[in-house]
Amino acid sequence: MSFSSDVKMELAGNVPGARHCQIAELAAMISMVAYVRYWAGRPAGLVIVTERSVIAKEIASLIKRLFRYIPDSSVRRTGADSRVYRMEINSPEIVNTILMTLKIENEHECEGLMQCQLMKVSRMDVQQDCCRRAYIKGVFMTSGSISDPNKGYHMEVVCENEGRAQFIQEIINGFGVEARIIQRKKYYVVYLKDGEMIVDMLGIMGAHISLMNMENIRIRKDIRNNINRRVNCEAANLNKTVSAAVKQMNDINYIIETKGIGYLPDNLQELALARLENEDASLKELGEMMTPPIGKSGVNHRLRKISEIAEEMRGC
Q: More exposed terminus of the chain, fewer Cβ within 10 Å: N or C?
């Protein structure tokens, strides 16, 4: 299974204990994957459709807990490995009770037999912090996803209208997590691309095992990135050192071929000969070969003087 599926499986096992949190979660899920059938302007049926069995089971469990009712269920195969799970409630009385309890309203008037999916969840459902957590869990389970953290950091919830996306964004931002919205074709997507914020969201929703798994992946990636940066830095420094040594030897050989080693002052002659005889020696090692020994800065200063002399000779 994918990391996103693992998260949803874990969340499905953590049904809120408080009734008000169960209402918040179910309201979130119903508003994302259900529609209401209206007759003569009144709700007559509720239909829930999802492609994931874990979501169907979670919704059915919450309806049973809250309303002591079991929806009519059916499964339709749509491919070799895909199915559509459908639940229906055709009792106007039960449907009306569910909508009133969940405080869900349609944003547009419905006349005749129509399917209305533009549901609006009341702010009364998410007044408490625990209910906001349950609401975010519900919308993520039905319409959210998280990419494999081994490949990258991305979490999103796909909505059918901008108002719902803004409502979800507002609740997420209330936890100190900066969610953004982008329009993708006819949908509005609430998303996070920061690994630390996604970890925070897993904690907010109650997916603590997935949180630890993602943290372990992040730690391994950070260690690997740090090692790569260090290796790249050391390689760059080595290349720089080798390039500098090659230039130093070219300068020394040019002086010797043009004017002879005696053209250099005694202190520079000693260092020039030491460099020719020790191509791979570091500045520190060259300094220790001098009589008396000198430090790295002293060696660097003398090599610069040799380079300046060679450049002056080339300019003549």
A: C
End-to-end CA distance of the chain: give it in Å, rounded: 73
For residue 262, the one-letter residue type is G
* Amino acid sitting at position 69: Y
- Tokens 């391994």 correspond to 220
Other beta carbons within 10 Å of 9:
16
Q: Nearest Cα to 160, choosing from 133, 183, 137, 127?
A: 183
- Nearest 5 degrees, angle CA 4-CA 129-CA 206? 30
Q: Please give the Cα distance from 282 to 257 (Å, whole number).
A: 25
Query: What span, in angstroms and rounded, lies between the C-alpha atoms of 76 and 85?
Result: 7
For the segment 5-56, what is each residue's pLDDT rounded down to a tens digit?
A: 999 999 997 888 899 999 999 999 999 998 888 887 788 889 999 988 999 9
What letter does residue 160 receive in the DSSP assignment?
A: S
For residues 29 and 168, what is the distance between their CA atoms, to the nearest angstrom? 12
Residue 297 has pLDDT above 80, yes or no: yes
Torsion sign across C-alpha atoms 245, 249, 250, 251: positive
Distant-in-sequence, close-in-space partners of 87: CB < 8 Å, separation ≥ 6: 47, 48, 56, 59, 60, 71, 72, 73, 74
pTM over 0.85: no
Identify the pLDDT of residue 140.
97
Copy the structure tokens of residue 185: 């074709």
**Residue 295, SS3 per DSSP:** coil
Buried b (16+ CB within 10 A) or exposed e, 131-170: bbbbbbbbbbbbbbbbbebeeebbbbbbbbbeebbebbbe
Mean pLDDT across the chain, nearest whole number?
89
What residue spans of the chain are helical by DSSP H? 3-12, 19-33, 53-67, 92-102, 129-143, 162-173, 195-205, 208-258, 266-277, 283-289, 296-315
- Inter-CA distances, 211 with 3, 131, 175, 204, 216, Å: 11, 20, 16, 10, 9
Q: How far apart are CA 51 and CA 81, in angstroms?
A: 11
In the numeric block, the tokens 């003549």 are attached to 316
